[in-house]
UniProtKB/TrEMBL annotation:
Keyword Transmembrane: yes
Chief localization: endoplasmic reticulum
Enzyme class: lyase
UniProt-annotated stretches for the region Disordered: 1-24
Pfam family, one: PTPLA
Family: Belongs to the very long-chain fatty acids dehydratase HACD family.
GO cellular component assignments: endoplasmic reticulum membrane
Keywords, alphabetical: Endoplasmic reticulum, Fatty acid biosynthesis, Fatty acid metabolism, Lipid biosynthesis, Lipid metabolism, Lyase, Membrane, Transmembrane, Transmembrane helix
GO BP annotation list: fatty acid elongation; sphingolipid biosynthetic process; very long-chain fatty acid biosynthetic process
Descriptive protein name: Very-long-chain (3R)-3-hydroxyacyl-CoA dehydratase
Topology in membrane: Multi-pass membrane protein
EC number: 4.2.1.134
Length: 252
């Protein structure tokens, strides 16, 4: 955040341990649920991808494509938040499927839902910004690959191409997505300050104040420690997963 290639599940268990220990996975019902969930999510992000392409071909421009995929984007990105806690708690017991940090994954999911609703949906003036398209494209490609990866992993038939894409394309997609997110938040700041969106001023009966403008700035600052952790974590996982897969292929 890996599972085996077509050669079997042994390749990714333990990531280099000579005597990998098998973990007990969920039952057939839980596995079926997870497969269905991931297939639906893969299909949903494919719908978003097709919507972007069709809108671009119809308009002949990449500007303001957000409106063509606004509803499915909100639905499927929010779906990731609603289901992620169940998915991670169950899937972590599947051998090699979720080697990444649950905390980092949760931050990523929540930050995307936050961008979708609390920024892009709430500050309509930013919906025409090119930065929105930047993170939408990055999310779309990432999620199609990620949910495909989980689906094939659960079925124990993970093609090497999908594993390679999962642990390689993030090198470009993550910086691209984060850049789009930060630029969109930055573009929203003047409108948030002017409108006082979501802010609570004193005096009030709760004796509590909240400045959404300042909160958004703090959110942007939080990317400084979090993003490098996530990025270098994925680089570390890439070295372990792909190098171990190559060693496994050579030993066959």
């Amino acid at each position: 955040m890996a599972a085996s290639g077509s050669g079997g599940s042994r390749a990714d268990n333990g990531y280099g341990s000579q005597q990998p220990r098998r973990r007990k996975g969920p039952g057939a019902l839980a596995t079926a649920y997870l497969v269905i969930y991931n297939v639906v999510m893969t299909a949903g992000w494919l719908v978003i991808a097709v919507g972007l392409v069709r809108a671009y071909l119809a308009k002949g421009s990449y500007h303001s494509l957000y409106y063509s995929i606004e509803k499915p984007l909100k639905f499927f990105q929010t779906g990731a938040l609603l289901e992620s806690h169940k998915y991670l708690l169950i899937a972590k017991y599947l051998s090699g499927i979720v080697p990444s940090s649950v905390v980092l994954t949760a931050f990523q999911v929540m930050s995307r839902v936050f961008l979708t609703w609390a920024v892009t949906h709430s500050v309509k003036e930013v919906q025409t910004e090119d930065s929105v398209l930047l993170f939408v494209v990055a999310w779309t490609i990432t999620e199609i690959i990620r949910y495909s990866f989980y689906t094939f992993s659960l079925l124990n038939h993970l093609p090497y191409l999908i594993k390679w894409a999962r642990y390689t394309l993030f090198i470009v997609l993550y910086p691209m997505g984060v850049s789009g997110e930060l630029l969109t938040i930055y573009a929203a700041l003047p409108f948030v300050r002017q409108s006082g969106l979501y802010s609570i001023n004193l005096p009030n009966k709760y004796n509590f104040s909240f400045d959404y403008y300042t909160f958004l700035i703090l959110v942007m600052i939080s990317y400084i420690p979090i993003f490098p952790q996530l990025y270098f974590h994925m680089l570390h996982q890439r070295r372990k997963v792909l190098s171990h897969t190559e060693e496994h292929k050579k030993s066959e």
